[in-house]
Amino acid sequence: MRYITPRKSAVGLGASHEGTQHHWYMTMSAVALAILTPLFMITIACAIGLPRELLLAYFGRPLPALITGLFVIVGMLHFIKGTRIMIDDYFQGATRKGAVIFSVIFGWAVIATAVYALARMGLGAIVVL
Amino acid sequence: MADVNRGNRPLSPHLQVYRLPLAAVTSIMTRITGHALVAGIVLIVWWLAAAVASPGAFACADWVMRSWIGFIILTGSMWALWYHMLAGIRHLCYDAGYGFEIDQAQKSSQLLIGGSVALAVLTLIIFFVF
Question: What torsion, rounded to 10 degrees, do the Cα atoms B34, A101, A84, B74 define?
Fold first, then answer.
């Protein structure tokens, strides 16, 4: 016997049962990114044009590394969910499935690459030849 | 229903002759800028990864970053990022229940275009002065 009423189990979920969480995630990440965007622009603007040794040292410092890491991670997760909506709007069937899979893989690949690069720089394991 | 005046009723927009209102243009631009931002983030992450990979890889990525292609991608992404951020803030206002009237949407659209261009120009000036 179900103790939960049908209404109770449906309220707030939407047709896909995850639309509310999706919307709330986009809201949260949007607020985070609104704070991170100016910081990220300053961080990158200061780094452009540096020679390799100085660039490695620059992103080895905590603040540039944290701002860059957070921006790429939160930004790409925001991208994955945002792209999902675009794909759902314009594609159907197998194309839709393929596009969703591609966007998730692509997003995580960008995150992994950035985190790997920042970790190498931050841990000081680079021998500059 | 036979005596309904069929000549004077509003028609649904015919997409090929319909001039999109400014609010519709700025709305679709939010999606376009959001997806176009991939170019900028991929360039920057490639540049970071190349810096830890090898001097040769970094020389290549750094050359692209500082070339006119890199300038176009980075400047375009910078404007797109400001635009997408301001549009996102407008969406937060929509979520809170503000700005739905036609004249308000028109005003926020103008603010979105003007604000993003102003912020982009300001960013470029600050970048080249310092």
Answer: 0
Q: Which CATH class is domain A20-122?
A: mainly alpha
CA B38 to chain centre: 12
What pLDDT, in 10s, does the model give residues A73-117?
A: 999 999 999 999 999 999 999 999 999 999 999 999 999 999 999
Q: Does domain B32-129 have CATH number 1.20.1300.10?
A: yes
Q: Domain locations in chain A?
A: 20-122
**B85 to A27: CB separation less than 8 angstroms, yes or no:** no
Chosen from B41, B64, B94, B122 to mutate, greatest number of chain A CBs within 10 A: B41
Of B42, B123, B127, nearest to A110 by CB-CB distance is B42
Q: For chain B, how big is the Rg over CA atoms in Å?
A: 21
